[in-house]
Amino acid sequence: MAITATKGQVGLTGNAAVAYAMKQVNPDVFPAYPITPSTAIVEDFSSYVADGEVTTELITVESEHSAMSACIGASAAGARVMTATSSQGLALMWEMLYIASGMRLPIVLADVNRALSAPINIHCDHSDSMGARDSGWIQLYAETVQEAYDNTFMAVRIAEHAKVRLPAMVCFDGFITSHAIENISLLEDQEIQDFVGAYKAENPMLDTDNPVTYGAMTLPDAYIDFKYQQSQAMMRAKDAAVEVMKDFGKRFGREYGLFDTYRLEDADTAIVILNSAAGTTKVAIDELRKQGKKVGLLRPRLFRPFPWQEMVEALKNVKAVAVLDRADSMNAFGGPLFNEVRSALYDLDQRPKIFGRTYGLGGRDYKVKDAVAVFEELSRVVETGKVETLLKYITL
Amino acid sequence: MEKKEFPVGGVIPKGGTAHEYSTGGWRKLRPVVNKDKCTNCLICWVMCPDSAVIAEDGKMMGFDLDHCKGCGICAVECPDKVKAIKMVEEAE
Ligand code: SF4
Ligand code: SF4
Questions:
Q1: B10-49 residues touching A, CB cutoff 8 A
Q2: 20 to 30 Å CA-CA from A148: which of A10, A70, A274, B90?
């Protein structure tokens, strides 16, 4: 898709917007293996390469395992590196994801969220990126095309932040966000270049005057110490994210935080939910508010690191919370978002009542009526003071 | 090295550090060269995967036993007509 407008509004799909964002960053290397629903990112980006609109080295590889391996090699060499994938592609990268983060390489990956097989399915849920939640990557989630576009730039800055140096994943919903056209506002190339700045690699392998080794063996006398460093970096990533989001807001007027809230300040009940389904939930909230019901929403944007203190602060006055997961941990104990929000609330003296619901797997629609039904359940919990059903599937 | 100074990401921040780390302790068989037979063709020097054959001025001088792992490749690669390298049990 050719984009000529660089000012004002333009209608773009999520994939086209993120590919355009990557073009504006103009990374040094882009290794990729296309997979639905993120294919258009790779298609668009390769057009930019072919048309000479970027100076990026595009590496076409034979699998996603190789794509991430090439990302790691290029990043260790000293390049600014980006890629995109989905679902099975991310799953095939698994082994290498941990190596990228353990080597502290600030690679940026767009993950267009899609269900994992089996059964095979190409539509949206979060089982791919949720499966990678412990791989040491920073994870940003986006509700809209605009946010996915903006997060791409912020991810570069957070990943490369001197106090962080960790890879980052930009996640948004397959088809719902990746293929739907939204009116968004693009930034100018120069604004982006000023925002991300020139990349200065640490210990680049191509600096042959100062030879270094990547990927050396560490034994029990050192391994845990490196993991401790990595864990500390992930803790620092929260402040770095706040700093980067503030700078983004100051420069471009679009304010982002660790999470987004909607009519939460005086809410008695709230839904916690990721990505595009938050939009549907907001419509339900507006309808219920018209009937005088005090309902609200919290939508995490930064999931790794998990900003639990801030979330507790935002949820502590709510009487009952429903956490909706578009992924099942298959632990017979609820989804990942549910477990982490519930754990975060544990230390409160007056804890909100809480339950978890799994919804929308494999692209099953989540409708306004589904959100309304969850809010009805929540108000029953508030009335009775009891959670009847801790966990269940909805949208079945 | 102080733990606080551990390089980020496990990077080894300089070259040639393998010199300082002895890997010869793995060895079960030790190469022994018979200099009377050796023709200094240096095939063993080329083929040793651990650069543990010492060559000076075009001559085979023996083995760096701090880094020789005892694989026996040098003994196999030494030309059939020469066979100047024998592997002997470390225990002997
Ligand atoms: S035994 Fe193996 S490691 Fe030792 S010198 Fe011969 S080829 Fe090299
Ligand atoms: S391969 Fe055999 S003959 Fe050639 S240098 Fe080595 S020991 Fe000597």
A1: 10-17
A2: A70
User: Whose atoms come closest to the Cα of B39: which ligand?
Assistant: 2
Task: Give domain status of residue A368, yes or no.
Answer: yes
Same domain, yes or no: A242 and A299 = no
Task: Give a yes or no: residue A1 inside a domain.
Answer: no
For residues A362 and A176, give the distance between their C-alpha atoms in angstroms, rounded to a whole number: 12
**Do A202 and A340 fall into the same domain?**
no
Strand pairing category for A353-358 and A320-325:
parallel
Q: Which of B69, B87, B89 to mutate to test the pocket of ligand 1 (most atoms within 8 A of CB)?
A: B69
A92/A71 Cα distance (integer angstroms): 14
Between strands A295-300 and B29-33, the pairing is unpaired
Q: Is the ipTM of this complex over 0.90?
A: no
Q: What residue owns the CA closest to ligand 2's atom 6?
A: B44
Structure tokens at A375: 């809010």
Closest-CA residue of A relative to B12 is A213
pLDDT tens, residue by residue, A183-201: 999 999 999 999 999 999 9
User: Tokens 């982002």 identify what position?
Assistant: A256
Beta strands A168-173 and A269-272, pairing class: unpaired
> Cβ(B84) to ligand 1 under 6 A?
no
Enter the pTM of the model.
Answer: 0.92
Structural domain count, chain A = 2
In short, whether B78's Cβ falls inside 6 Å of ligand 2 is yes
Q: Is residue A4 part of a domain?
A: no
Ligand of minimum distance to the alpha carbon of B35: 2
Which pLDDT tens digit goes with each residue over A4-57? 555 678 999 999 999 999 999 999 999 999 999 999 999 999 999 999 999 999
Q: Please tell me whether residues A224 and A337 are part of one structural domain.
A: no
A332: containing domain: 260-393
Shortest Cα distance, chain B CAs vs residue A108, angstroms: 17
